[in-house]
Write a structure and sequence with these properties.
Helices cover 70% and strands 3% of the residues. The protein has 303 residues and is an all-alpha fold. The chain has a two-stranded antiparallel sheet with strand order 1-2. α4 crosses α5, α4 crosses α13 and α9 packs parallel to α12.
């Protein structure tokens, strides 16, 4: 990709951020009610442009189908966590758009930014050389997959049995549950990379999770349409809306994003044409069910 185009993307993103901040300060629409979108969609544009400047490759311009697939899977991945939250209610949504025909597409467009935000940030960090020299002695854990699967199942169940204390396990569950399956399906996984001594991807993902967490909370804090935290414990030392210890959850969450995205890609690859259509239709049906569940259970107020 030509450097001028990449720089243009980044400039557009900066202009949109400036407009969003100015619009919010003046109370102007659509910046007030839809501030989240002016934080995250320009960020995707900026990260893609920066990645193009660093590597010469733009996901949006050169591989748009992969980018769209990432957006689609992002909605599915985030709604998987919302399933847990229907029971745990660790976060709630306030000031939502009252019109359903705008609110539900808004859910989809907001949740679509989660995976690209985290994974593109990790790719930028990798391109910058962060952790490039982190090579360790290979290790052998033998047949580790069954144990990881058992831990993953435990992490799925315990939050429902002891929600006041086990709620953080949702940010570990899909790592242990899906990484061994991904390893068996593709021969590549975060654990496999760790065992062969490669630590760069892990470090870049962890840092990406923390950076994106700060970005999420920074833009959520001044937004009228926002999420609020209702954790049973650990509600102290808040930075923006998030309790201090809550930021630790963004670290494993980034690992989950990578594992879940790669698992969905590997699953899709194994399906035939008709099966792939059903695969996507099932996800769309899941979205609609969850959007209704969010309205009933998780949203506490509308504008």
């Amino acid at each position: 990709m030509r450097p001028r185009l990449a720089s243009g993307q980044m400039l557009v993103a900066v202009v949109l951020w400036v407009a969003a901040i100015g619009g919010r300060l003046m109370g102007a629409e659509p910046f007030t009610s839809w501030l989240y979108f002016f934080a995250w969609w320009p960020l995707l544009l900026f990260l893609d442009g920066l990645l193009a400047r660093l590597t010469g490759a733009s996901l949006i311009r050169q591989r748009p189908r992969e980018f769209v697939r990432m957006l689609w899977f992002s909605v599915t991945v985030w709604l998987s966590f919302e399933v847990f939250n229907l029971w745990l209610l660790n976060w709630r949504y306030a000031g939502m758009e009252p019109r359903l025909w705008l609110r539900w597409p808004g859910y989809a467009l907001a949740f679509a930014t989660v995976l690209p935000g985290v994974l593109l940030t990790a790719r930028v960090l990798t391109a910058l050389g962060v952790g490039a020299h982190l090579q360790e002695t290979p290790r052998d854990w033998g047949n580790w997959q069954p144990l990881f699967l058992l831990i993953g199942v435990a992490c799925l169940i315990l939050p429902f049995l002891a929600p006041n204390y086990a709620f953080p396990l949702i940010w570990l569950a899909f790592i242990f549950l899906l990484d061994p399956l991904l390893d068996l399906m593709t021969g590549d996984s975060l654990t496999r990379r760790f065992l062969v001594g490669d630590r760069q991807r892990h470090l870049c993902l962890l840092l990406a999770g923390l950076l994106c967490g700060l970005w999420w909370e920074m833009w959520n804090f001044p937004s009228p349409a926002r999420w609020v935290y209702t954790l049973p414990v650990l509600n102290f030392g808040k930075i923006f809306e998030m309790p201090l210890l809550g930021y630790l959850g963004f670290l494993p969450f980034a690992l989950e994003c990578w594992v879940m995205f790669e698992f969905l890609k590997a699953t899709e690859k194994r399906l035939s044409g008709p099966q792939r259509r059903l695969f996507y239709l099932a996800q769309a049906a899941f979205w609609l069910v969850m959007f209704r569940a969010l309205d009933v259970r998780t949203v506490i107020s509308f504008q």
